[in-house]
Each structure stands twice: as C-alpha cells, then as structure tokens.
Specification:
The protein has 679 residues and is mainly beta. It is 6% helix and 50% strand. The strands form 11 sheets. Strands 2, 4, 5, 7, 10 and 12 form a 6-stranded antiparallel β-sheet that branches. Strands 14, 16, 17, 18, 20 and 21 form a 6-stranded mixed β-sheet that branches. Helix 1 links the parallel strand 22 and strand 23.
C-alpha cells in the first residue's frame, strides 16, 4: 500500500456552472411525497394494496412505494408512469431499487411499456422467492419505442398472499450515453475504526461502451491537514449496466474521535472524459471510532393475539431467545389488527409500527432491518458485527413505580441520535385472543419518555444519561415483579441501531468512572488518572489502550504503563484510553474514554485566515485574507495539473473562473489555511 500527504490544506471547489446535466434523463422519481406522483396510476388488480410508505427499505431515502399483501389478489397489478415522449428514441434504460419481505412461494415483477394503456409489451421480468434488497437496471427496446406518448409500468404478477411487503424506490428512465461510468457509492462504513482505511467504492457502467479502464482521484480532508492522493487507474472489463467494486492501494489514516469527509471523483474513462460528469463524484462523512463494543442485536417484533400466522413465528422466536441468553434485546408490540386486534395494543406501539411502515403481522425487525423471522444464523450474523456504542442501565421498583437509570455511550461523535427506553413484561396472559396462544413474551407496556425516543448528541468516549420514574399502574402490566427494560440507540433517519442492552433488573445502576485523563510523561510512561463513580462501589476496573485490554480487575484510581509508552510515543498520532468500572455479579458500567497524543509527527492546526466564496461558484471566486496576509493560490484540475497561479497580496481579491474547462478544481493556499468543500 502507498500513502501520500500534502501538508498544506487543499481546498476543494466545485464550479457549478460546469455541471453537465444528463439531457437524456426522461424520468427520475424518488417517491418523496405522500401520494403517487402526478400523472401516475395503478392498473390491473390490487389498487387498494399500494401505499406510500415512510420507510427506506429499498435502499433509497424515505418515502418509498409499498405493495402490501392485503387485500390479497391473484394476477397482475401495475404502477404506471405518466406518458413519456420517446420520439426518435430507440431504447432506454429503466432502473429501480426494491426490497422483498417474502412470506412463501414465488412472485414475479417486471417492466413493460404501452402506447395505448391497454396493450402492454414486456421488456423484462424476473421471479423472486427470497427476501432481500435488490437493484434492477434493464434495457428497454419494445415496439413502443419512438412513439410520442409511451407509458411505462413496473408490474407485479402472482398471488399477493405469498408476500408480506414489497418496497420500491428511485425509478429512473434514461437514454444511454456512449461512454458513462457512474460512481455509485463510497463503501467505507459511516462509522469505521480509526487507523489506515483503503477507499472502497462501487461503479456502474451506464453507457453503451464496455469499460476497459478508468482513473479515480481520492481525497480525504482531515483535521489540520489534507490527505491528497495521487490518481489510481484500474483495468477491468465492465460490461454495459454491470456494477463492480474496487479498492485503492492508497489509504487514509483516520484519527480516533474525528469525522472526515471522504471524497472521490472519476477523472478518466477508457483514456478520455466520459459523457456524463454529473455522476462521477461522491462525498461521504465517515466518523473514526475510538474502539468498539460487543453488539447486542435489538429485536422489535410486531404481533397480535388475533393473528393466526403469528403463532409459529412467536414459537420460533421463543425457542431462539431461550437458546441465546445475553445475545439479544427485545421489545414486542401487540397490534390492534387483524380483526379486533390485541387487548394490549398501545398508541406507542402504533408509533413504532408507522415508523417502520409495518402493515402486516407478524413482522420482525432486527437492528432496524426487516426480517420475515430471525433464525440462529441471522442472530449470529448481527451479534458478530462490531458495535460503536455501548449501553448500560438498571431499574428497581417501588410499589407500582419503576425507576430507571441508563447511560448511552458512543465511540464516535454522533448527533441527533435517539435513545429508546421500553418497559416490557416478560410474560403476559391477560391479552389472550383467538389464535390459540395462551402466553406472550417481551410485551411492551410503556416507552419512556415516548415512542419517538430521546434525542441526544454524544461526543466520542462520553455518555449521556436518562433517568425516569413512572407509575406503571396506568399500563397493562400484570406483575410488577416480571418486568424488563430494553435500551437502544438508533439513527432515526436510517433506522440503523447502533447497539442495545437490557437494563440490569431490580438492582442499582452501575455508574461509570469520572474525570478520566491520560498523558505521556516524556516518552517512557503513560499516566492515567480517574475518579471513582459518583455512586456505587466498583470491585475493580478494566483498562483499555487502543481497544486492547491492558489491565483487568485493577483496583487503584491511577495507572501507569511503561511497556507501551515508547512504542506509542515514537509512532505519534492519537491514542485512546478507556476505563470500565466493574461491579459484583459480573455487572459493568459503560466505558469512559479519552484521547491522548504523543506530540510526535502531529501537525498543529492553525487558525483559518482565509475564506473563499462563493462555493460552489459560477464566474468569480472571492478570496478574503485577514491582516493583509500575502500568499499564493495554486489551482489544480482533477488530473493534478496546475492550471493557474495567483498571488494574494490584498485583504480581498477575485479570481475569474468563467473560462475554466468544465470540471472540479482544487485550490491550494500556501501558509495559513482554511478549508472549503463543495456543496
């Protein structure tokens, strides 16, 4: 692997006047509204089975289109676009995303066209029998091509009872350019461990010409400097409409606790510039974590005592959880349908139902992702994924009042994350319906403060605390000695669950350490200090340096490490200390973390004394310098060639960019720096 640094900060400027729009896009529908787009219609059967859902299961942004099994039908149902003028056009590409939550058997979806709305010509069709998320990109060259008013449809064919839900999003119809390589995604996770990270990305050939080679320019702005990379060329045969994933040899070095904007741009395709520049660039925010924790998957289960199919799923889930103690957190929402529904339905359960777009039971969600049911293999796969948050809580009961204390800790900076607290009863018998079940497990009784969650901003290595006291006599609780409390952190926009944990039951909270500090004493000793928790008596402490356990069951409040000191000091960069308080009966607090640096090989961050605006720009870029600072601005294109050099010798000056070649440019300012990132 190779690594390159440019120690002066590179400024990224997007010249929007050069953005080359795809003139051949005929339709681009993301279903963001609450109704079908204007001019669209439902044809054939199943008119009452299509909904706009506030979910993003297909892989796009909420909202999305949903086909629900009920009212069930057996035949063809079509989602039909408004008419599209195809005069002079011989073929198009139709792309969309979809996600199937299958119940049984097989069902077909396809693409068809019509010039009269009566006679349909099928362009593509495929049977699906397994749940999953998919992307379709298909060429359409039916006899309707060339006509002025052509209807397109995405059709379903089969018995709708065989599905639970089928989600669709991001319909696009366009005419292929000759040469067009799209940068589909930057595949570095939005939370990733600190350290060396190669750029992983996916491209798709949207053009007619087979791609034999392409060149990409990675760029990773960081704190105090910029990792500015050489271009890398990849040789690979990518057929039209084919997707392929690649990884650069170069890598970014991410420091713990920082958030980065990772940027990439395709600058060359088959030795030349491709025909559509608007899909060549992507940017992604990546938070570098201080470490990771054991993931405890969060299971949310929608069910009802009046639901016949719920019985087998409940039995399977009961067996699964009995065989996996400590490997899950659970909350079951009893619904008010089918029929009369469940007697223990609550409005809070309805809020979670609407959040996930659940309109059929049974439905099982694990870590925010829909599953028909959770098998041992599925549970294991989630349990074995690293988690970048940790949660601990405890509750006790006084009469009918439950008292809860919970700490939510993150290994990365997170904003507007939501903490959820669900008070459940382990087993209920008072909500028996007509499906033959006589007992129900993990039934949610109350969500605190509400089913909308508690919004938090958490800095890396720190925690936020929630405390509640609630009179459970206002709920359906049958036995106050049979409660459990589920805790989880969730990204509300993406539904991703960062981690979860059951609160310790009928006991005191395990409080974490206070005022943790760490520093090098010269290059020979790492000194670590902390204060005891504000309440409780720990039996010891576990100490981690850079996510490695270096001391177990330690009993003092100060700690020194000489073995790692010289190694870490010489390596430079940031290091992470984490301390976890240990309590009786193998209970623990959340960890508390801190970042300490050696000072070696660290570039000090200077005050920004430049501003460059507007960004993006059209004709003129203005540069404002403080205190009459003199410097030179060097302007590079995406190939790394310098196209201009301008001296800055006044507090305010302008650079005319109206004659620049279409594309993206990098402004490099010598001396003190400021960062500008394209919109």
């Amino acid at each position: 692997m190779r690594k390159f640094y440019l120690l002066t900060l590179t400024l990224l400027l997007s010249i929007t006047m050069f953005a080359q729009n795809r003139a051949t896009t005929l339709l681009n529908e993301t279903f963001d509204g609450n109704e079908l787009p204007s001019g669209w219609s439902i044809g054939g059967l199943g008119a009452e089975s299509w909904y706009m859902s506030p979910t993003n299961n297909a892989g796009g942004a909420a909202n999305e289109l949903l086909l629900y099994y009920y009212p069930s039908f057996n035949g063809i149902s079509r989602i039909v676009t408004a008419p599209i003028d195809l005069t002079g056009i011989e073929s198009v590409i139709f792309t969309f995303k979809h996600c199937l939550d299958n119940y049984s058997g097989s069902s077909k979806i396809g693409i068809a066209t019509s010039s009269d709305g009566i006679n349909w010509n099928t362009a593509w069709e495929q049977n699906y029998s397994a749940s999953g998320q998919f992307v379709v990109s298909e060429a359409v060259a039916t006899p309707d091509m060339g006509n002025p008013n052509v209807l397109f449809c995405m059709f379903y064919e089969g018995d709708s009872y065989n599905i639970n839900n089928w989600y669709f999003d991001d319909f696009e119809i366009f005419v292929q350019d000759e040469l067009d390589l799209k940068l589909v995604s930057i595949d570095i996770p939005s939370m990733t461990p600190a350290g060396d990270v190669n750029l992983m990305f996916t491209v798709q050939n949207l053009g007619k010409t087979t791609i034999e080679s392409f060149t990409i320019q990675p760029n990773g702005p960081s704190i105090g400097m910029c990792d500015f990379f050489n271009t890398e060329t990849f040789e690979a045969t990518i057929a039209p409409l084919e997707k392929m994933q690649f990884t650069t040899e170069q890598y970014f070095t991410l420091q713990p606790g920082q958030t980065y904007n990772i940027y990439a741009d395709i600058v060359d395709v088959n030795g030349t510039q491709d025909d559509d520049l608007t899909n060549n660039s992507l940017e992604k925010a990546v938070a570098a974590t201080m470490g990771d924790a054991q993931r405890i998957p969060m299971i949310e289960h929608f069910s009802s005592s009046t639901c016949g199919p719920c019985v087998s799923v409940n039995n399977n889930m009961n067996s699964l959880t009995a065989n996996n103690p400590g490997k899950f957190t659970y909350a079951k929402y009893q619904m008010n349908w089918p029929g009369a529904g469940d007697a223990y339905y609550t409005e809070e359960g309805g809020v979670r139902r609407d959040y996930y777009g659940c309109n059929a039971v049974p439905m099982v969600i694990i870590d925010g992702e829909s599953q028909g049911a959770v098998s041992q293999a599925v549970l294991d796969s989630y349990y074995n994924k690293p988690a970048f948050a940790d949660i601990r809580g405890a509750f006790n009961v006084e009469g009918n009042t439950i008292n809860i204390t919970a700490d939510f800790m993150s290994y990365a900076n997170v904003e507007n994350i939501r903490a959820y607290v669900s008070v459940n009863e382990k087993v209920t018998t008072g909500n028996v319906g007509n499906n033959g079940e006589t007992s129900f497990h993990h039934v949610m009784m109350k969500m605190l403060d509400s089913a909308e969650g508690n919004i938090m901003n958490i800095n890396a290595g720190e925690y936020q605390r929630l405390e509640f006291s609630f009179d459970m006599s206002t709920t359906h609780v049958e036995d106050m000695n049979d409660l459990e409390v589920a805790l989880w952190l969730q990204n509300y926009e993406t539904t991703e669950v960062l981690n979860s944990h059951f609160a310790y039951a009928y006991t005191n909270h395990c409080y974490p350490v206070q005022n943790l500090t760490a520093a090098f004493d010269g290059n020979s000793v790492i000194n670590v200090n902390w204060e005891a928790p504000e309440q409780g008596t720990p039996v010891g402490y576990n100490i981690y340096i850079n996510n490695e356990l270096v001391e177990e069951n330690y009993t003092e409040l100060t700690y020194q490490n000489t073995e790692l000191a010289n190694e870490l000091y010489s390596a430079g960069g940031d290091n992470v200390i984490m301390v976890v308080a240990l309590y009786e009966d193998e209970k623990t607090s959340v960890g508390v973390g801190n970042i300490f640096s050696s000072g070696v090989n660290v570039i000090e961050k200077e005050e920004s004394t430049f501003s460059i605006y507007p960004n993006p720009a059209k004709d003129i870029v203005k540069i404002s310098a403080i205190e009459g600072q003199s410097s030179v601005v060097r302007i590079y294109n995406v190939m790394g060639m310098m196209v201009d050099e301008v001296e800055v010798n006044s507090d305010n000056m302008e650079i005319n960019v109206s004659d620049y070649t279409p594309g993206i440019y990098f402004f490099n300012v010598e001396g003190k720096t400021v960062k500008v990132i394209k919109d």
